[in-house]
Amino acid sequence: MIKTENVCKDFGELKVLKNISLTVEPGEVLCIIGPSGAGKSTYLRSLNRLEKITEGAIYIEDKLLEKREKGAKINKITSKERADILLEVGMVFQRFNLFPHKTVLENVMIAPMNVKKISKAEAEETARDLLGKVGLSDKIDAYPSKLSGGQQQRVAIARALAMKPKIMLFDEPTSALDPELVGEVLNVMKKLAEDGMTMLVVTHEMGFAREVADRVVFMYQGQVEEIGKPEQIFTNPKSERTKQFLKKVL
Ligand code: ADP
Ligand code: MG
């Protein structure tokens, strides 16, 4: 579903990603853990082309999205082709960024109507269905400011799903939430995983990673330090750095 080959990203002199090669299989949940500054967000953002990589290649569903050498693009792809590939990728951020002057329902309807040119009736039907799935049927006409952080993040998830992506990227979706609201968002993500969604999740929620991930990646200083099944990573990490990190967070 996703494949990256030797992805590097420099910000000027700073080498933030160093040869990241990873694959995510259809239906797989891959959790990325690691210390702050490891490059987790930059990696996720590269997959969505919110950051331009410096080196390496990114494939989405076997389609080449991007291939670069020394910053120069070496694949030919039209902006239409790129946009079509990226339609398959939804993303949820730490901050939800809902449209404040639109209702919950409108927030979920707007992108499919504007980007996919879906009829209002169809967009509304999908939005109602998704808002039901994230447990917000009773908040459809509310404005975001009237919702808790956990509710807003669930709207953000429904909004991303409304585009019917095949892959969902989550960048610390619960980090901005009060502790008592974390569970409701993780539960929605867990359900999504059980429904077979391919997911790449950057998280500090080790319980979630352990329970839901098919594989866990430990990123350290822009590299994949270790990758394995959650059971192995959490009980028997091979790398000393993984061990030290887990000691701090568990
Ligand atoms: P993480 O998500 O693992 O905490 P990030 O991917 O956000 O790490 O950041 C990795 C490194 O890249 C950090 O040192 C950060 O300061 C740097 N960085 C991130 N974005 C930029 C940017 N736009 N310009 C310069 N440096 C950046
Ligand atoms: Mg980050």
Automatic annotation (TrEMBL):
Q: Which UniProt keywords apply?
A: ATP-binding, Nucleotide-binding, Transport
Q: Does the keyword Cell membrane apply?
A: no
Q: Which PROSITE patterns match?
A: ABC_TRANSPORTER_1 (PS00211), ABC_TRANSPORTER_2 (PS50893)
UniProt keyword annotation of Nucleotide-binding present: yes
Q: Which CDD domains does the entry link to?
A: ABC_HisP_GlnQ
Report the GO molecular function annotations. ABC-type amino acid transporter activity; ATP binding; ATP hydrolysis activity
Tell me any Pfam family this protein matches: ABC_tran
Domain (ABC transporter) spans 2-246
* Family named by the database record: Belongs to the ABC transporter superfamily.
Q: Return the protein name.
A: Amino acid ABC transporter ATP-binding protein
Q: Which organism is it from?
A: Lachnotalea glycerini
